Each structure stands twice: as C-alpha cells, then as structure tokens.
Amino acid sequence: MSPRGREPLTRERVLGAALELADGGGFESLSMRKVAAAVGVEAMSLYNHVANKEDLLDGLVDIVFGELEAPEPGAADWKDALRRRAHSMRDVLNRHRWAVGLMESRVAPGPENLRFHNATMGCLREAGFGFREAVHASSVLDAYIYGFALQERSLPFDTPEEHGAVIEVKQAAIPDMTPFPYLVEVMTEMATAGYDYATEFAFGLELILAGLEP
Amino acid sequence: MSPRGREPLTRERVLGAALELADGGGFESLSMRKVAAAVGVEAMSLYNHVANKEDLLDGLVDIVFGELEAPEPGAADWKDALRRRAHSMRDVLNRHRWAVGLMESRVAPGPENLRFHNATMGCLREAGFGFREAVHASSVLDAYIYGFALQERSLPFDTPEEHGAVIEVKQAAIPDMTPFPYLVEVMTEMATAGYDYATEFAFGLELILAGLEP
DNA sequence: TTGACAACCTTACGGCGTAAGCGTACCTTA
DNA sequence: TAAGGTACGCTTACGCCGTAAGGTTGTCAA
C-alpha cells in the first residue's frame, strides 16, 4: 500500500504519462524529468519502475504494438485481413508518430510485439504461403507501411489549407526553381488540388496486395 | 586567408567531419563538441560555419542526397531507370544508416534534394505517367525503399553468422515462445538458412515495378 | 595608421541521463 | 510488541549536451 495516501506509482502509470507527453508532440524533448513531473514525482523515482530511458521506450513501443489490429491466422479472406492490418497500422502510427522509427528497432521485443508478428506470419502461412513466400510478403508490406508512415509523419501540416500555405513558404524560400520544372508542377498542382494521404496509401497498398499470391 | 597557417575551416570541412563521425556509428551521440574536436577546433567555432545543429544535419542530409543516382528524365527504359534508382538508394542508405529517418523530414530541402526529386518526377512524367499517376508511383516506391532501409538498419548484424547468434540470444531471453509457433518457425528457419536482404529487397521492388504502368 | 571584420576563443546557463546513497513507511517474523 | 528487512520515495552530484554572450587576434581596405 502507498505511504501518505497518494495512489501508488506503477510502471503502467509512468508509461501512460510518457505516452501522453510523446503523443502531445514533445517526443524529441521527452525527458525523465518531465515524465516524473507529469506523475508528480522526482526524476530518480522513476527508476524504481523502469530500468532506464531505453526500457521506458521499449515499454512505450509495446503499448503501441498492443493497439495494432492483428490479423487472424486462418482468416477466411486473408487479403482483407492484411488490408485491415495495414490500415490499422497507418492509423496507429499516425496517432503515435514518434513511434515510426522505433517499432522494429527495439533490441528487446515486448509481448505485444511478439503477438503481432506471430499473428501476421500465421495469417500468411495458413493462407497457403510457403515459409519463404510468407517472409517476402510480410517484408514488402511492412516496408511499405512503415515507409509511408515515415513520409506522412514528416509533413508539417494536416489540413489541405495548411498544406498550401507551407508550400508557398517553401517555394518562396528557394531562390530559383526554374531548374526544377517538374517540382514546380508538383507544388503548384498540390497547392490547388491538395493531397489526400488516405487515397495515396490505399493506392500503394492495393498495388502490393494485388501482387501477392500464395 | 587563415591566421596561424592552419588551413581554414569551412562549412565543407565541418560537414565532412560530421559525416565521418555519423557513418562511424556514433550518430546518436554526435555532438557539436565532437565534431569540433574532429576538425581541431572548439565547439563554438563551428557556429561560424553552420547556424546550429539542425543546419548541420540539413547539410549532412543534402550530402547524402547528392550520392543518390538520379534517374534521367526521358530515359529509354523508364522501368530500369527506376530500378537503378531504387538500388542506388538502398546502397546509399546502407552507407549512411543514420540518414534513413531524416531524408524526407528536413524543413529546408537542399539543392541535391531538389535535384533528385525533380529528376524522379521528370522520369515518370516523360515516361507517360499523368501527373497524379506519377505522384502515386513515386510515393509507393519511396515508401517501400525508405521503409525497407528502416528495417534493414534496425537489425544489429551484418553477416549470416552474426544473424544466427543474435537470434539464439533473443530466443533465450524470451521466457516462453510456445504461444508464438509461427515466430519460432521464422527464427529457427532463419538461424539455419540465413537471410539475404538484397534478395528480399529485389522481390518487393519488382513486385511494385510490375504493378506500375503509365 | 586606423578601423572594420572574420574567425577562433573562453565562459556560462539551463537541461539531460543516471550513479550513489539517504530517510521513512510498511510488512514480516519472533 | 519489538526488530529487521524491504520498497519506494528523496537529494546530491557528475559529466555530458546545445548554444548565448562576448572577448581576442590576425588580416584586410581606406
């Protein structure tokens, strides 16, 4: 039980506060001191619940893995299962943009990580993919999904209006665009017609799914 | 001219030293003080040649863009031009693994960045792709390439022998793998047969290229 | 000769991750 | 009830980090 009435600090509370700070946009400035302040404690007290900052990040990444919709091994429509898996990953990675580069780079994979990858391989194997083919399929899908999330993360605007404004600023900052006529075309076209990431994502995803067969 | 005979420090020398440190594996611990020491100067002296650390990173990223093989607008075989572009990107991103997450996230794109993207769009437009289709094509290709590089970067081994060793360690660290039979299959299979990134990359690339037509 | 300027310097500030060790409230066992 | 152990919070301190402020010095143009 907790001393002095305050409800007890746990690893879950620490990770929850860190997740909130990271999602709030302050991932690159996320620090042990700020997490500690968010849970009303001094920095060093966190070390009773996480081994170090790396361990804290491992915990965050596994929470994100837990939010992903794992495909069901043995699903009737394996292609649709993979489609829904992909859209789930894009949604989740957009909620937690800081996580994009970290998902597959943890040395110590957490339980949700294992669960998710096991389900993906299971779905492919049960759909009739051979072992090598299943690895190929998950590799190309994940590369595309993470790569798309990476590109989507790096654009500093969300609405089409912001989009246009940013492009104008960028164009103004570059002294002479005449050597790059094809880029000028992209920028003017996008400034007027906007850009829809969801459509773009679906295009590439369907292209890849169409090329996959057991 | 330089005082005291020592050849003058330039932005290029600063970026060169920083690139060497980053490629040497110390990107996450790259600091202004270390770059300064590498060029025989105090940290604050760097600020005569770069605005700040962000500007230094912008410079590094543009150097990497400069190493990429840009496709030629109007190439006879546009598909092969894109294929060579993709392999060039994988090669370069493997030489500069720290750059993977940074390439498309710079607020201020450098001249080599502009040159490369202009060439890519030009190659697609001249191959007969409509404007929207060209954007689709470059989006799916780049997402795949960057995503693949991201996954390749995060694996902490290079040779098949190291690969096996790492897998054994990982498997030993996880208490009970029985809930994840499909993962066990992957790990044992890979430990014996190894894993070839080049083949894996080519598989996905050809799948995507096969699905692209003007 | 003078004065401006560029390039390198020292100093200092606030923030970082975390090692070391202290204090106190609680639980177990005698 | 008393004694000892343990869990969990705390303070302090170290060596890093990026960079603001401003000093020094060697080289030029006027």
UniProtKB/TrEMBL annotation, chains A, B:
GO molecular function: DNA-binding transcription factor activity; transcription cis-regulatory region binding
Gene Ontology BP terms: negative regulation of DNA-templated transcription; response to antibiotic
Domain of life: Bacteria
Limits of the HTH tetR-type domain: 8-68
Listed name of the protein: TetR/AcrR family transcriptional regulator
Coiled coil start-end: none
InterPro entries named among the record's database cross-references: Homeodomain-like_sf (IPR009057), HTH-type_TetR-like_transc_reg (IPR050109), HTH_TetR (IPR001647), Repressor_TetR_C (IPR004111), Tet_transcr_reg_TetR (IPR003012), Tet_transcr_reg_TetR-rel_C_sf (IPR036271)
Annotated DNA-binding residue span(s): 31-50
Pfam families xref list: TetR_C_1, TetR_N
Keywords assigned: DNA-binding, Repressor, Transcription, Transcription regulation
